[in-house]
């Protein structure tokens, strides 16, 4: 994840403000992670 929009996500308290927006994970500042990225970057436990 690159870019200024993701900088606030380094703060643990801000990161915890995520919400599910359809199939994406989003934050109040407009940052989001697409479902394809979550799938590709995820690990099977």
From TrEMBL:
Source taxon at top rank: Bacteria
The protein's name: DUF2442 domain-containing protein
Organism: Methylomonas rosea
């Amino acid at each position: 994840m690159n870019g200024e929009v993701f900088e606030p996500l380094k703060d643990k308290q801000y990161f915890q403000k995520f919400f599910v927006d359809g199939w994406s994970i989003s934050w109040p500042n407009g940052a989001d992670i697409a479902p394809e990225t979550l799938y590709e970057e995820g690990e099977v436990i």
